[in-house]
Amino acid sequence: MSAKMTEMEEKKVYGYIRVSTREQNMDRQRIALMKAGITQKQIYMDRQSGKDFERPQYQKLLKKLGKGSVLYIKSIDRLGRNYHDLTEQWRIITKEKGADIVVLDMPLLDTRRDKNLLGTFISDIVLAMLSYAAENERENIRQRQAEGIAAAKLRGVAFGRPPKPLPDHFAQAYQAWKSGEICAAGAAKECGMPRSTFLYKAKRYEEK
C-alpha cells in the first residue's frame, strides 16, 4: 500500500457514489474518486433516487463520519437533489459531525479550505446556488415530461397498455342488448366479461 493511501485511511477519508437507476454506470464517479486517492473499500455506493436521504449505504457512511474525516463526492447532485434536504445534510456532516466535504467538480465546495468566516460564507453561498439549481433542474425535467405527454395526447398518442380486442361476437351481443333482447348482464356473459366492462366497451363502441 502506498504512503498516500495509508495517509488517506488514517485521516478517515471516504467517497460516496449515487446513481438513479440500475442502468446507469458508476464507473465515471468511481474513477474520479480513485484518482483523488480513495480506495475501493472506502467508497460507499447507492443505486437510488436523490429525492431523499433514506439510502442504506449513505446512512451507513453517515455513521462513519466524524471529526477529522473527509467525504468526497464527484458532484453535488450525487449527494442529493432536494434543496432543503441537501443543505440540511451538509449542515449535519460539517457542523454536527465536524467532518469535511470535498466536491470534485466544484473546487469552491471544499470545506477544508479557508475555515475562516469568509470561507464558510462563500462555501454556503455556492452550496445554496448549486443545490437550488439541482432541484430546479429536476422540477424542469418533470414539467417538460408533463408538457410532452399532454402534447402527445392532443396528437392522439395513446399511453399505457393497448386495449384488448373485442370478442368476435361483441357486435351481435351489443345489438341484442341495444334492441332489448337481452340485458346488459346477459350480453356481458356472452362476451365473457364483467357487466361493467361490457358497458364501458359498449360506450366506446358507440363513440367509434
Distance between the ends? 74 Å
Structural class: alpha/beta
Lateral arrangement of strands in the main beta sheet = 2-1-3-4
CATH topology of the largest domain: Rossmann fold
User: What is the H/E string?
Assistant: HEHEHEHHEHHHH
Tally of DSSP β-strands: 4
- Kindly estimate the percentage of residues that lie in beta strands according to DSSP: 5-15%
**At the first level of CATH, what is the class of the largest domain?**
Alpha Beta
Describe the largest sheet.
4 strands, parallel
CATH architectural grouping of the largest domain: 3-Layer(aba) Sandwich
The helical percent reads 40-55%
Question: For the CA atoms, what is the radius of gyration?
Answer: 29 Å
- Total of domains: 2
Characterization of the model:
With 208 residues, this protein is α/β, with parallel strands linked by helices. It has two domains: 3-139, Resolvase, N-terminal catalytic domain (Rossmann fold, 3-Layer(aba) Sandwich), CATH 3.40.50.1390; 170-207, no CATH class. It has helices at 3-10, 27-35, 56-64, 76-79, 83-96, 117-154, 170-178, 184-191, 195-207; strands at residues 13-19, 43-47, 70-73, 100-103. It has a four-stranded parallel β-sheet, with helices on both faces. Helix 7 runs antiparallel to helix 8 and helix 8 (184-191) crosses helix 9. The longest helix has 38 residues, at 117-154. It starts with a helix and ends with a helix.
List keywords for this structure.
2 domains; Rossmann fold; 9 helices; 208 residues; four-stranded parallel sheet; 4 strands; alpha/beta; elongated
